[in-house]
Amino acid sequence: MGISKIAYSPNGLVHFSVGAIIQKEGKYLLLDRANVPEGFAGVAGHVEVGESAEQAIIREVKEEVGLDVRGCKPVFEETLYGSWCKRGIQNHHWQVFECEVKGQEKKNKESKSIGWYSPSEINKLNLEPSWVIILKKLEII
Ligand SMILES: [Zn+2]
Question: Among the CATH numbers 3.90.79.10, 3.10.20.90, 3.50.50.60, 3.40.50.720, which is that of 6-137?
Answer without folding.
Answer: 3.90.79.10
